[in-house]
UniProtKB/TrEMBL annotation:
It comes from the Bacteria. The keyword Membrane applies. Keywords: Membrane, Transmembrane, Transmembrane helix. It comes from Paenibacillus konkukensis. This is Oligosaccharide repeat unit polymerase.
Amino acid sequence: MILIEMFLIFIFFSIVIIEYMKRKTILNIHTLIMGPYVAVAILNNWIATKFGYNEVSKDSLIIIIYAIIIFYFGSSYCSFLIKYKSRIKSCTNVDHEDHFSINMRHIQVYITIVLSVRFLDLVSGFLLGGYSKMIENDFEAMQLSGVPAHLMLSIYPLLAILFYQWLRQKKKSYLVLVILASILSFASFIKYHVISLFLIIFIYCAIKNKKYFIKGARIMIISVISIFFLNYFISFIMRSLEMSNDFYIYRLWTYIAGGSITLNAIPNSVASNYDVLDWLTKTFRPLPNMLIYSIHGPIPFDDIGIGYQIIGYGTSTGRILETNVINFLGEIYATDSFAFFILAVFLWGVICQFVYERAVNQKNEKYKLFAAVFLTYSMLSFFANYFSLSATWESLIWATIIFPIFKSKQKLEIMLERGS
């Protein structure tokens, strides 16, 4: 097992070094997307197994190795095509902070309005149903839904701009709005809502200026762990529940590593009951669903998955550890078509590299915002397939269309003059 683990580490860092030699930065899609797969697998096998978690098996590690290599071939193929066809000169060392003009005052006003709508939504829920209604069914009444949910998703890209501008200008009003938005996202008690917001901000800032990548990575790790603990701690206090410290630690690692450990169920048994078409339907159904939901209602669809899998036995809690999530790679591999696995991961590498290249080599701000959102949900793939959620696709749409709305009047006048 140790040889496979060391080979996994060797393959990953070889690719990172190759990319560093080409771009003089460790910020790349392999670090962002494949890095978490490697880190989780190694930390689980070297540390978490001592506390009762199952190993990420040899066969599962081999799947990850295959994916890293195929993903790299896909990204390299994309880079080759870009250089051959368009001769785009790399400018990853350039700070793009002055390459756009946007009306920050209008952004602040819009974000304030959206946050007010979200706050009033929470207040109205409390006034109509009372405290007991707010906390029942895992805080269902506090979750993002309807118009407030769509509006909140629309400001995620703008919050990334706002935070980056705070880093440059240190205007307190910018930071205050980002903090308030984080709190109101956190209030849904769905962890990925606020985690994805933080990741979008982190990746956007790193794309804008690579110096924020290392600093931001450290802050992100601490922030995600803090969000997780606070999410459970506050929810238990609100429901007058008490849990041991061991519960929080085991719950954290089950959340982080569960999707990787359940990979073990795939190579050794027929753990899934779906094929390639089922996976494609699950992943891409949310996009048309958003467009026709209000007219026709949701597209009928049987959900797919591998069911609950035991991933260990807590040595200090004495409880069985289980989860029903599987990471993005495992979900693809479970279609039982290795040819499709190769094709899907290769194309994923192509798309991720294309999105990243456009973001770092083009001045248009919407490419950076789109990349921040797309790479965020690709980064979270070590946990699950977030592209099967409508919120992911809606976030990508907002990232594409929201920036042009807030271009400054001066910029628009310049564009009109050039056109006349």
